[in-house]
Backbone:
């Protein structure tokens, strides 16, 4: 029982810290690229910023409009949060430092991450607001479309590693000597990162939020702590998808040439570094690229990413049997 | 083993109550959300029988895709907030109850006859076994199901597609 409690506590802390690290990175990246003085110089060189942000949202009033569908409206952020936090359970920081090394780890991650869509959709509907409904519909259309390439890109890795356990996949990459991204899954990696960015609903795939035309999409009517949950979930999702991408494609907690006996010591540092590098790329894209148009976004998923990932599976399977 | 049974009964009770709520609520979205919980509890039941793969398939396919498409479809056509009188279909209640009862009896008969009342919970994973059985002994039904899915896919495209010739006819 204590073990379970410790693990749940670890999950909550890891998820929150992941979100905070990525919030800092996003905001500091933005102010560095766009010359915003606030997050760069104010209060401990700007590092105090996320704390201020959380305090700001907690002390705000949680306004619930009268026309909303109350229970649905109130619980919608919970689905999104649960789907993000649960993902932290399967990502290994080292062979032993993992909450649950499930045999079907990859499958679990994909199944749980699909739950968030329900929260987004119900949030958009229950707000009784046309902008919210539009945002919810766009979000659902996008999440459905990009879930497929995300899953299909992972299938290539699973075929190559012959296991669905995330620890098993990393061990296979150590055995191979090079991470899968070098060892034949470069296409899979690119598809995964594009689809993951769309799943996070970040620029250039932030049509559902669309500040200028939809005011904030499905989050329009949310305020205070419920808005904060959506906000934090976005960064948790970003952190954990980057961590999963590092584990699946970039060798996880190990880099070539480091001695495997010491993996328990340097594992967490290596994984966090890889995650942070991927996160920084996403931040750089966010603050320098324009947003896709809705039809371009759907075309990219259905006409390019899905066929490409199917070809990737085919090639990987042929190579697996052939060599 | 006792605590396992107690938990099982609690899950079954919760499952029953959410399932009843799916058919009694008078709001489509509430029904869909109750269905999410029904399916989640079913997944937990499968998990307790140590068939992780089936449980995760329920979550991925039914909750993550089917229900999401339900919600999407409802919202993109019409999604009234509050009660929806059309959902209370009094005429077919007896028929529905009769069909539900007969399905219940049929399944109980099959399950009790087939397993003699004792369920063996295998330790370890059944995923590999499931994969092998699906592609050897049950390969024909498996292929048949995929064929049905293909037919449904083509049917869906045919219904949704707007043929230019047809549009012209409609306008005339």
Residues:
């Amino acid at each position: 029982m204590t073990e379970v409690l410790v693990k749940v506590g670890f999950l909550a802390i890891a998820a929150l810290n992941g979100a905070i690290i990525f919030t800092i990175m996003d905001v500091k990246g933005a102010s560095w690229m766009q010359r915003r003085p606030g997050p760069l110089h104010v209060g401990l060189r700007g590092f105090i910023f996320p704390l201020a942000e959380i305090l700001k949202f907690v002390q705000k009033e949680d306004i619930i409009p009268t026309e909303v569908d109350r229970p649905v409206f109130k619980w919608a952020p919970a689905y999104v949060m649960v789907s993000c936090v649960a993902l932290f359970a399967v990502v290994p920081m080292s062979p032993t430092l993992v909450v649950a090394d499930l045999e079907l780890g990859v499958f679990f991650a994909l199944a749980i991450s699909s739950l968030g869509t329900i929260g987004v959709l119900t949030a958009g509907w229950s707000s009784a607001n046309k902008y919210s409904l539009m945002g919810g519909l766009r979000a659902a259309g996008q999440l459905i479309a990009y879930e497929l390439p995300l899953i299909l890109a992972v299938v290539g890795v699973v075929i190559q590693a012959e296991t669905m356990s995330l620890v098993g996949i990393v061990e296979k990459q150590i055995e191979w000597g090079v991470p899968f991204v070098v060892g034949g899954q470069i296409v899979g990696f690119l598809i995964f990162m594009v689809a993951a960015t769309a799943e996070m609903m970040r620029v250039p795939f932030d049509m559902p939020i669309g500040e200028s035309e939809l005011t904030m999409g499905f989050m329009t009517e949310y305020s205070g702590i419920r808005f904060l949950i959506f906000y934090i979930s976005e960064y948790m999702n970003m952190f954990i998808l980057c961590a999963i991408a590092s584990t699946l494609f970039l060798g996880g907690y190990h880099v070539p040439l480091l001695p495997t006996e010491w993996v328990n010591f340097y594992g967490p540092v290596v994984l966090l570094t890889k995650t942070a590098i991927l996160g920084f790329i996403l931040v750089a894209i966010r603050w320098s690229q324009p947003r896709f148009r809705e039809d371009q976004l759907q075309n990219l998923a259905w006409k390019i990413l899905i066929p490409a990932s199917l070809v990737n599976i085919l090639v990987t399977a042929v190579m697996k049997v052939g060599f | 083993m006792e605590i396992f049974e107690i938990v099982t009964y609690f899950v079954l009770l919760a499952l029953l109550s959410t399932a009843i709520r799916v058919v009694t609520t008078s709001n489509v979205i509430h029904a869909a959300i109750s269905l999410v919980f029904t399916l989640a509890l079913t997944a937990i039941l499968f998990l307790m029988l140590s068939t992780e793969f089936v449980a995760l398939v329920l979550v991925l396919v039914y909750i993550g895709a089917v229900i999401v498409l339900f919600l999407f479809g409802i919202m993109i056509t019409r999604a009234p907030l509050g009660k929806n009188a059309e959902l209370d279909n009094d005429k077919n209640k007896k028929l529905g109850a009769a069909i539900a009862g007969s399905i219940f009896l049929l399944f109980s008969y099959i399950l009790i006859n087939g397993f003699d009342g004792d369920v063996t919970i295998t330790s370890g994973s059944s995923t590999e076994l499931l994969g092998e059985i699906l592609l050897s002994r049950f390969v024909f039904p498996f292929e048949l199901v995929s064929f049905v899915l293909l037919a449904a896919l083509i049917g869906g495209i045919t219904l949704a597609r707007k043929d230019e010739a047809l549009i012209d006819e409609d306008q005339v």
Observations:
- The first helix of chain A runs from residue 2 to 34.
